[in-house]
Amino acid sequence: MITARWFWFALAMLLLAVAWPISQRLSLDRSLERMFPVDDPDRIEFQRIEDEFGVSQFLVFAYRDPQLWAADGSGIDRAMQWRRSIEQTPGVAYALDLSRVDQMLTTLKGPAGLLGAFSAEKATRPLLDTNNKLAKEYRELFTGQTHSAQTDLVAIGVLLDRSQTGLADLRQLANSAPGGLLVGHVAMVDEGFQEIEQDGNRLGIFSTITLSLLMLLGFRSIRWALIVVVVVQWSLVITRAILVLLDWELTMVSSMLSSIVMVVGVATTLHWMFGYQHFYQSNADETNLELRATGALRASISRLWQPMVWAVVTDAIGFASLALSRVGPVQDYGSMMAVACGVVLVGIFCLVPTLALLPMGYQLGNVPGDVWIQKNLQRLLDGVCKHRRWVIAMAGLLLLLGVAGSSRVKVETDFLK
Fold first, then answer.
1. How many CA atoms lie within 13 A of 4 on its CB side?
2. Percent helix, percent strand, percent coil in the chain, to nearest 5
3. What are phi and psi of 78, to 5 degrees?
4. CA 143 from centroid of its chain's CA atoms
């Protein structure tokens, strides 16, 4: 592996070039019903009602208009303009606002009302006629649906088609309206999953930066800090491409994929790094630094490849055991992480030999306070061995407290929180 390191490195770069465009197609599954098993009665019933009536396709586009009931009808006109803008948005099947209610009243007035609507002289809108008993009843009927009786809030009911392609455009339109809001099941779920996706990305970036800085400050080696970043990012791209090829999607649970891959990649790379450091320092008689680094890398991988493989295999088995869950996203998360663990292992063996032997300084720095840390860890070990009965008793007591506390844990089921 060390001798043929450039071949394996070139192969890894070729895989990266092929996988990069594919990995960009990985999407996030935004359906809440997948949280239930496929055969769950609640999910089956919800899907049946959804197929029949499309209950989750309804949205409310709300904005503020203090002059909604202006006598000249300008408030109703503005509602009509917003409604027409909404209906022109792709993915919108129908929209209901006060102007449509006014049109219904105009129709109910018969030919006289229709002639008045087309006449040169602008007639009073029927909905604004204070002497019209039917208009008053319609205003009361649609209170809480198209407008608020106590505030200047105006609402337009929006029915989406099955594609749900216009959410982003509707949200942008709502942001341009005075006090605009877009509320409803679909909008809430979409926004919630956007936040989850952004949190997952932020967590991945933050974990990458912090762990890289920790290695840079702790071991004083730019090389190994960069090795960790390269291995993790390569593994993420390859893993995401594999998920796309397998027709999998990220879910609410697996959106933190990047940060978990970061942890697995750092932990496994550290095994090799510590072994390399040990053999490099033990061969101080070698004056040729490149030969010294090559020997240390070869000796460390000969000693550590089995522990590294079994550590990753153990992680993969642990994640794969989540397949026993009845919750779909949890099953997917376990399968994805099992795949990611294998990819991390391949990335380490393909990338580390070449990157570790690049001519940019082979020596690793010492961790600040290394002697003090080792001394106190040895003291802690001696103390535990000397008072092992007390330690076991305290551990048992903590276990009992943990069991008692876990029985009182409450699961939060409110998605809004």
1. 7
2. 70, 5, 25
3. -65, -40
4. 38
Decide: 273 and 300 in contact? Cβ < 8 Å. Answer: no
> What would the pLDDT profile of 30-52 be if each residue is shown by its tens digit?
776 767 777 777 777 777 777 77
Q: What are the start-end ranges of the E strands in 153-208?
A: 153-160, 181-183
CA gap 190, 1 in Å, rounded: 47
Neighbours of 166 (CB within 10 A): 21
Interatomic CA distance for residues 32 and 252, integer angstroms: 9
pLDDT given at position 362 = 56
d(CA 413, CA 417): 8
CA–CA gap between residue 150 and residue 140 (Å, rounded): 12
- Contact assessment for residue 204 and residue 259, using Cβ atoms and an 8 Å cutoff: yes
Average pLDDT over residues 337-355: 90
Cα–Cα distance for residue pair 390/242, rounded to 1 Å: 50
Strand order in the sheet with 181-183: 92-96, 153-160, 58-64, 181-183
Produce one character per residue of 302-323: b if its CB has 16 or more CB atoms within 10 Å, e if not. eebbeebeebbeebbeebbebe
SS3 assignment, position 39: coil
